Amino acid sequence: MAEASRWHxxxxxxxxxxxxxxxxxxxxxxxLLLYSIFLINLCILTFGMVNPHMYYxxxxxxxxxxxxxxxxxxxxxxxxxxxxxxFWKFMEGPLLDGLYWDSWYNNENLYDLKNxxxxxxxxxxxxxxxxxxxxxxxxxxxxxxxxxxxxxxCYDKYTSKNEDTADFGLKQHTEWKYSSPRTNSPWHWGFVGxxxxxxxxxxxxxxxxxTLNKFINLRMNSWITRGTRVIFIDFSVYNAxxxxxxxxxxxxxxxxxxxxxTSWQFYSVKLLRYVSFYDYFIASxxxxxxxxxxxFTIQEIKKLKEFKxxxxxxxxxxxxxxxxVLCFSTVxxxxxxxxxxxxxxxxxxRNTEKYSDFYFLAYWHIYYNxxxxxxxxxxxxxIFKFISFNKTMSQLSSTLSRCIKDIIGFAIMFFIIxxxxxxxxxxxxxxxxxxxxxxxNAIFTQFRIVLGDFNFAGIQQANxxxxxxxxxxFIFFVFFVLLNMFLAIINDTYSEVKADYxxxxxxxxxxxxxxxxxxxxxxxxxxxxxxxxDEDKKRxxxxxxxxxxxxGFDEKEIQSAEQMKKWKERLEKKYYSTEIQDDYQTVxxxxxxxxxxxxxxxxxxxxxxxx
Length: 611
What we know:
Blueprint: E1 3-4, H1 14-49, H2 53-66, H3 84-99, E2 118-119, E3 123-135, E4 188-189, E5 194-195, E6 200-203, H4 208-220, E7 228-239, E8 244-253, E9 261-269, H5 277-307, H6 315-350, H7 359-381, H8 391-402, H9 404-429, H10 439-450, H11 456-462, H12 466-502, H13 510-525, H14 534-550, H15 555-575, E10 587-588, H16 589-610
Antiparallel strand pairs: 1-10, 2-3, 3-6, 3-7, 4-5, 7-8, 8-9
């Protein structure tokens, strides 16, 4: 029999299988293009939220209130405050000078201030600044019996249970009377405690001289006591030139150990989001973003109905769900923050005689920025789902997937040693070195040591014997041994993957071939590239043969590979044609014999390689 009319060994027909793969590749390509548009839109949306002037506004404000020194004492500024005396010097000096700008530098009034200060002549002070204090009660801790004859008072660290709510001092004005906290106000996380809203509050005056007299009166009547644990200085400014609000909070914590720890927050935010034409363009991007979320949600619901529990076996599906949750959270935070802004901003701006609490609005706006930043991070990570069209990225993905078990086993061993050294460093150097003052700081410090950033002099000064021993052994075991083991795991797995790819054990990059083919066809139609001829293919085959000879393959192996390639191309042309989808192609017995023999040779070669 010269010809066999059909070649079908059961299962799905080859031409239908190829047709299904072709449809899947086209669907994947369409999904990639759609997701690329979504990612571009998300990037425009996120970068449109960030104003380059935010950094400079924060910088000038922090320089004014943090770096300005007390008159006659160059070393005393807000950052260097260590005692109550230094604190009052700052309040009566740099703080007042920074808040009240009554005239131009030559004492000339260039414009109507409308009863409001303009910091640096450009930033309008919104409402009145506010000063707030939180205290703890006496007797919140116990004095040892040995020292009760010397000291009978004890003030513990700040907690909501230890907070003092009784009136004190003159008991005449709000600064001497306790004000209950509001339920919707965020708490403040400081160095030595977490502080709620409320406390002993007073607002400053619009007159600089009246505010100075207020500070002097508080200082003379001991407004700051032994029970004081924190003082907040809050105010907000608005710059109409760049449409930015700057919400400022200066914090002075009074730990139970004595002294003062200062910290600060400068939040430059764009609360009025839709002002210019570019802002309305960003609003259109937000609408498109919501449309994409609806489309992706429908797609995932369809997949979930189709695959059911098998849907959750793919890590990419979990990433899709995480991304959808983040996108919906972004929309929720955006709607909530905008509703709060438009509900409160008018009322805050009308009450110019009171403190305008923009900190609450900035708090939610910062949360919105953080959520959308995490969203775009995972949106970029999802790009790895489409890396099958690239050989290099596929090798990277295969390497990580193959060595994941080895990496998990290594990570267990690594963190056992790492946490052991972290606890050792915390216990030995925690009371002497700031980098080891807490267990968390010790962990981060050890990561910095691995990267080459360390303070060996401080460790050695804290303990002259254990310091050098800790440092040398940590560097030896973690840096020289464990990290090199980690690199060896990655390197060996990558070598195995590369070897498998070189002998043909690799995924078929059909998507990449389709993109390349479409690109070449477009260039040929535009007459920017000549069509590939048979001579070009022969020249390419000769180049591959020469490359194989240089790598040490003999002539028989090269000829066998060329024959296998021709057979594969002939079969793809006959059976895998997408133009004929409902009929089989004929094949000669000789072609079947040659193809079967080559296929068995390839399988035998793979078996010999594995053994």
